[in-house]
Specification:
Layout (H helix, E strand, L loop, with lengths): L1 H14 L2 H8 L3 H15 L4 E4 L2 E4 L1 H24 L5 E7 L1 H6 L2 H10 L3 E7 L2 H9 L5 E6 L7 E8 L2 E5 L20 E4 L5 H12 L5 E5 L3 H9 L5 E4 H10 L3 E4 L8 E7 L6 H11 L1
Parallel strand pairs: 3-4, 3-5, 8-9
Antiparallel strand pairs: 1-2, 5-12, 6-12, 7-10, 7-11
Helix pairs in contact: 1-2, 1-3, 1-4, 2-3, 6-11
Length: 289
């Protein structure tokens, strides 16, 4: 019964509302309220409080949250192992570009073999994905970065990916075989959010060359960036996998940046103590394809 209460508590935190949590869980709102009240009675602390129009965790609630997620994750892990891993929920954290351009057809192939496994993709920043894997709210994570190292996590490099300066085919740089940092001086840049690892790579290169970047636009999604470049509003910096279709059709042009940048890899991460069922091992194999 406590796991049910913990699941309800986590859902209220995620949705920020008793009403939305009730809709998601298929309960009456009164049941959600009662379950949270029971949990507060068990832990002898107020776990949620109203803020504006929503509910947020209190100090005690924030302390309980990672433990609640771990207990729920361990429960799902145990169910999966007992059932041979061929049913249950598989939570995958992934940065937005990988969730959109790397995962879909691989998840489709995986589902053909394991139709009883519910796949839940949680887009987020790299930092958030690593945290989710560590606190067991995600079974696996997909990140794009230089080689990740941790005492707690296994990081499997799946594929090295080049980074390109991305332009409209009629842009002055489109015919270049390589682009130097100096050629990007005063160039209007259309970039990802500031937590993005490869954005940081570009800005470090420009800084090393003594160039102050001209960032005209920032987008939290790749389609916005690509649309801006198509309209010739600026130049982007993206991994090949995110623009492969546009490169093949000639809609966009990708040019390598000169210099010895660090190599970036698509990486699958999971906890070292993770027990790998046959279904999880097949998921890892599918990600390698």
């Amino acid at each position: 019964m406590e796991l049910t209460y913990l699941r309800t508590f986590c859902e209220v935190v995620s949705s920020g509302s008793y009403t939305r949590a009730a809709e998601k869980l298929g309960y009456a709102q009164s049941s959600v309220t009662a379950q949270v009240a029971k949990l507060e009675e068990m832990y002898r602390a107020i776990l949620l409080e109203r803020s504006g129009r929503g509910m947020i965790p209190t100090f005690a609630g924030n302390n309980l949250l990672p433990y609640a997620r771990q207990m729920l994750a361990l429960s799902e892990e145990a169910k999966g192992m007992i059932a041979g891993g061929d049913r249950g929920v598989l939570n995958i954290g992934a940065i937005e570009t990988l969730a959109a351009y790397y995962l879909p057809h691989r998840l489709h192939r995986y589902r053909l073999r394991y139709p009883e496994v519910q796949l839940r993709v949680q887009p987020g920043s790299e930092e958030g994905i690593i945290t989710a894997v560590k606190d067991k709210s995600a079974d696996f994570g997909l990140i794009f970065d230089v080689t990740y190292r941790s005492d707690e996590i296994i990081a499997l490099p799946l594929r090295q990916e080049p980074l390109y300066v991305v332009t409209h085919p009629e842009h002055r740089l489109a015919k270049e075989t390589e682009v130097t940092s100096n050629q990007l001086a005063d160039e209007p840049l259309v970039l990802t959010e500031d937590t993005c690892t490869y954005r940081k790579q570009l800005l470090q290169e420009l800084k090393a060359a003594g160039i102050a970047p001209r960032i005209d636009m920032e987008f939290g999604n790749l389609e916005g960036i690509k649309q801006a470049v198509r309209h010739q509003w600026g130049t982007a910096f993206l991994p090949r996998y995110a623009i492969e279709e546009e490169l093949n059709t000639g809609v966009l042009t990708g040019i390598p940046l000169t210099g010895k940048q660090e190599k970036f890899y698509i990486q699958l991460i999971y906890r070292k103590e993770r027990m790998l069922s046959p279904a999880f091992e097949h998921f890892i194999a599918e990600m390698r394809q």
